[in-house]
Specification:
The chain is an alpha/beta fold. It has 5 helices and 9 strands; from the N terminus they run αββαβββαβββαβα.
Length: 148
C-alpha cells in the first residue's frame, strides 16, 4: 500500500524541468526495507510523466541528489537531518513513515505516510515543497491529512 501512495504522489507532482530530461524517474531507497522490493515489482511497468521508473537502493548520501524521490526506511530516520541538508538545494523529495500522533516535524521530509487504524494517510510538508519549487496538484493537497 505504501508503494501505491508513493506512486500516486509522484504522478501528481510537477518537478522543475531539469528533473524530467533523462527519461528515467529515479526512486531511491535509503536503508534496508521491504519497500524496495515491493516498489520494484509494482512499478516495473508504471511511468511518471512518461518516464520509466527505476527503484534503486542508495548506498551513499551523495546519491540522494540523483533521484527525484527518496524513501527513507524507518530505521534510517536518524539520518534525516543529513539527508535533508544534502538535498536542500535540489528538488529531491524525501518520503518517510511517521506516526502522525507523535508529530510530523522532521526537517526536510516532503511527504509523511502513516498507517492509522489500518488506513493509510499522508501529510505533505508544504514549506519543504515550496522551497524546492515543486508543484503539487490541488487534488492531492486536498486529500492530505491536516490533523484530527
Amino acid at each position: 500500500m505504501v508503494t501505491l501512495f508513493v506512486y500516486n504522489f509522484a504522478r501528481n507532482i510537477q518537478w522543475p524541468d531539469e528533473n524530467n530530461n533523462s527519461g528515467v524517474f529515479q526512486l531511491g531507497v535509503w536503508g534496508d526495507t521491504p519497500f524496495k522490493e515491493e516498489a520494484s515489482n509494482y512499478l516495473a511497468t508504471k511511468k511518471v510523466n512518461d518516464q520509466t521508473i527505476l527503484v534503486r537502493s542508495l548506498h551513499s548520501m551523495k546519491d540522494v541528489n540523483t533521484c527525484q524521490m527518496v524513501f527513507v526506511a524507518p530505521e534510517k530516520m536518524g539520518d534525516i537531518r543529513q539527508l535533508a541538508a544534502i538535498s536542500a538545494n535540489s528538488s529531491v523529495l524525501l518520503v518517510a513513515m511517521q506516526d502522525f500522533q507523535k508529530g510530523t516535524s522532521s526537517p526536510g521530509i516532503s511527504l509523511f505516510l502513516d498507517n492509522q487504524d489500518n488506513k493509510m494517510k499522508f501529510q505533505i510538508n508544504e514549506s519543504v515543497i515550496k522551497n524546492k519549487h515543486i508543484k503539487v496538484s490541488k487534488a492531492l493537497m486536498d486529500l492530505s491529512y491536516h490533523g484530527n
